């Protein structure tokens, strides 16, 4: 499979077969200087929103290259979309979940300031943390050769998360090691546009948070008989959902 490189959203709008596409900036520099891409090699360039062009490189410069498009594909947005609400966690475990979740196919990622989250984003840390997660998601999408890069939203509180659960056409699913329903047996509603998967921090989800989310319509599910770390639970659950939805 040809290498995948990313350009900004909208950069491929209107591009057709035979058109030149330039790859510059950090991506172009990496392709030319690190990956040693040469004239004649075939590359794939995606805009992170489902549009992918491919073609042979026709010219290279110091920090850029140009290819001539011989194929354009637009991959539709999967429905229902998979959203990972990942609680902030210490030791980089939340970042590990972002990376693996992106590789598995999550569509959107939402940081959650849970009651038991040891890690906290305050002040300038909010945008810095969100940007860090977004960069991790972008690199993971490239590694997985994904045409769509998941967006990373601003962090939410438990109250805001409960409000999401009350919205129509969204299914709120909360991982609970002692939940009565196995995720592998849970039947996603047929009419939902998003499945919102909620993963707690290293200390688990507080009882009052479970109550609040359940009152908002959330269903508590378990993966199995073992307790997974916060870095593992989300990706494992996403893999189960991909299978349940027939995508894997």
From TrEMBL:
<dbReference type="InterPro" id="IPR015947">
    <property type="entry name" value="PUA-like_sf"/>
</dbReference>
<dbReference type="GO" id="GO:0032259">
    <property type="term" value="P:methylation"/>
</dbReference>
<keyword id="KW-0963">Cytoplasm</keyword>
<dbReference type="Pfam" id="PF04452">
    <property type="entry name" value="Methyltrans_RNA"/>
</dbReference>
<keyword id="KW-0489">Methyltransferase</keyword>
<dbReference type="InterPro" id="IPR006700">
    <property type="entry name" value="RsmE"/>
</dbReference>
<comment type="similarity">
    <text>Belongs to the RNA methyltransferase RsmE family.</text>
</comment>
<dbReference type="GO" id="GO:0008168">
    <property type="term" value="F:methyltransferase activity"/>
</dbReference>
<feature type="domain" description="Ribosomal RNA small subunit methyltransferase E methyltransferase">
    <location>
        <begin position="79"/>
        <end position="242"/>
    </location>
</feature>
<comment type="function">
    <text>Specifically methylates the N3 position of the uracil ring of uridine 1498 (m3U1498) in 16S rRNA. Acts on the fully assembled 30S ribosomal subunit.</text>
</comment>
<keyword id="KW-0808">Transferase</keyword>
<dbReference type="InterPro" id="IPR046887">
    <property type="entry name" value="RsmE_PUA-like"/>
</dbReference>
<dbReference type="InterPro" id="IPR029028">
    <property type="entry name" value="Alpha/beta_knot_MTases"/>
</dbReference>
<dbReference type="Pfam" id="PF20260">
    <property type="entry name" value="PUA_4"/>
</dbReference>
<keyword id="KW-0698">rRNA processing</keyword>
<dbReference type="InterPro" id="IPR046886">
    <property type="entry name" value="RsmE_MTase_dom"/>
</dbReference>
<dbReference type="InterPro" id="IPR029026">
    <property type="entry name" value="tRNA_m1G_MTases_N"/>
</dbReference>
<keyword id="KW-0949">S-adenosyl-L-methionine</keyword>
<protein>
    <recommendedName>
        <fullName>Ribosomal RNA small subunit methyltransferase E</fullName>
        <ecNumber>2.1.1.193</ecNumber>
    </recommendedName>
</protein>
<feature type="domain" description="Ribosomal RNA small subunit methyltransferase E PUA-like">
    <location>
        <begin position="23"/>
        <end position="69"/>
    </location>
</feature>
